[in-house]
Input
Amino acid sequence: LLLAFANFFLTFTNLRYDIALVLAPTQRMAHGILFGIFGITVATVLFLSALTLLSTPKMLTWMTGLPPSEHGIIIFAPAILAFIAIQFLLQTWATRQRSFKTVSIAIAAQAVVTAMSAVTLPFAIGASTAAAGISAMAGNLAAIAILAWHSRRDFHAALSSNLPWPVIRKSLYAYRVYPLFTLPYSLSIAL
Output
């Protein structure tokens, strides 16, 4: 349930601009979309953090389906969301760069690390929701490491470009069709 709760917010971390990131005609526009998605992701993770910290126990039970005895693990939801969103963003960037081999290696590493953690971690800390969440985060971290290493030069170039806010806004505005028309569909699937 914890992973499902975090995954529901995944749609909000990119507002479906991931499609635009792959299709952007120039690197400058792609960098603008990349920075925009990153800003939206940070805002969504902060919102989820505030939501989990400020909600009453009754509201947390309603939102997550977890009994009050397991509400302590909800503090991991923003971290899980951040890991999933960063991996998704890096994977989308690698797709834009047509680095399909890297994406495949990252997905395989994620599966192997998640499976190994899920099998071994319960022996160390006991079988629990926390063990499952930590296993998932370990797998995400493995994929993030591979994808980030592969894209390090691209991200260095993006950070060096010093894009002003109007360029980022213009890049996002050019592809506003994705949040306007595909976001409702994505949300209906997430529900």
Q: What stands out?
A: The two ends are 13 Å apart (CA to CA). The chain has nine helices and no strands.
